[in-house]
Amino acid sequence: MNRVTTIALTALAPISWGSTYAVASELLPPDRPLFTGAMRALPAGLLLIALSRTLPKGAWWWKSAVLGTLNIGAFFPLLFLAAYRLPGGVAAVLGSAGPLFVVGLAALVLGERARLRTVLAAVAAALGVSMVVLTADAKLDLVGVLAGILSSACMGAGTVMTKRWGRPEGVGPLAVTGWQLTAGGLVIIPIAALVEGMPPALDGKAFLGYGYMMLINTGAAYVLWFRGIGKLSATSVTLLGPLSPLTAAVIGWAALGQSLGPVQLVGMAVAFGATVFGQLPGRGARAATAPAAGTFSSPEKTDRNVSMDLSDTGVRR
Question: For a tag on the chain, would you pick the N or C end, based on fewer CB atoms within 10 A?
Fold first, then answer.
């Protein structure tokens, strides 16, 4: 499979995540974001483990717990806290800063050199997203801002560590994704019980919504996302993230009757252009040799062979 196809498949994950707001607002019980997070993660994780028939072994028990907490268990609650304490546009802009966290963490953890074009693409993407979602009356809340920053940091750290640790020999992306989703869901459940109390009563629409969230929006999407991290550079994958708020804006316009003015349209063009620019290989760049699917990638081998910069074939989580 060539690099363009891999990027296109990985991009389906943030595009799917862009439908979360519309599905939640139209089909799911209101004001139960943590319960929704648990319903997204845990059933999907258990299903993937059942399909793969593979459990973690040795160090992968604690590695899965760490990755599941970073990517799911801590990320979801912090993201929802930011969404509740901040206007949606501010929360989305803080989330779009994730690529900048990945660039910095990649340099520290993987020893990857951050190129100027990578940073420019990340900044342009965040600027474009802000043009799409920010409003003039947006107000800041310190707790919400901190939660938004921490959620982006968790996602960035999870992306980098997923890239660094790879996956065990002979284990495919279904199993590794299932381990992380299960661990993350188990982290969310006690938080949801403490904050939101007993689960709400569910009707037919809610079952439909949660079914979509579990199978498509989470299960399939995270398999593609983690598979992409294994084959691409972490920075390249994280620069696909702005497709999520852009998709949400398009769905809001097409299905929910929300308006898109000239500023929003220009912002969408800027963010999408930055996303595409972030996938272009640099001049004179040599293709990185990514580990074959299902093989273990040691930190040393990953550091030598897979660049997190956009100029390499390797891509991120």
Answer: N
User: Which residue, 147, 157, 213, 227, is CA-closest to 185?
Assistant: 213
What is the b/e burial string over 160-194, where b = at least 16 CB atoms within 10 angstroms of the residue's CB? Answer: bbbbbbbbbeebebbbbbbbbbbbbbbbbbebbee
Pull the structure tokens for residue 5: 């196809």
pLDDT at residue 309, rounded to an integer: 33
Answer for the pair 233, 308: CB distance below 8 angstroms, yes or no.
yes
Predicted local confidence at residue 138, as pLDDT: 61
For 112-133, what is each residue's pLDDT tens digit? Answer: 777 788 889 989 998 998 888 7
What distance, in Å, lies between the first and last C-alpha atoms of the chain? 17
The residues of the chain scoring below 70 in pLDDT are 1, 87-91, 136-139, 282-317
Residue whose tokens read 């079914």:
211
DSSP string covering 188-249, please? HHHHHHHHH-SPPP--HHHHHHHHHIIIIIIIIHHHHHHHHHHHBBHHHHHTTTTHHHHHHH
Which structure tokens are listed for 294? Answer: 């299902």
Task: Report pLDDT for 287.
Answer: 41
Residue 236 in contact with residue 310, Cβ under 8 Å?
yes
d(C-alpha 87, C-alpha 77), whole Å: 16
Q: Are 248 and 19 a contacting pair, CB within 8 Å? A: yes
pLDDT tens figures, 174-192? 999 999 999 999 999 999 9
- Alpha-carbon span 150 to 207, nearest angstrom: 31
Helices 243-255/116-133 angle, 10° precision: 20
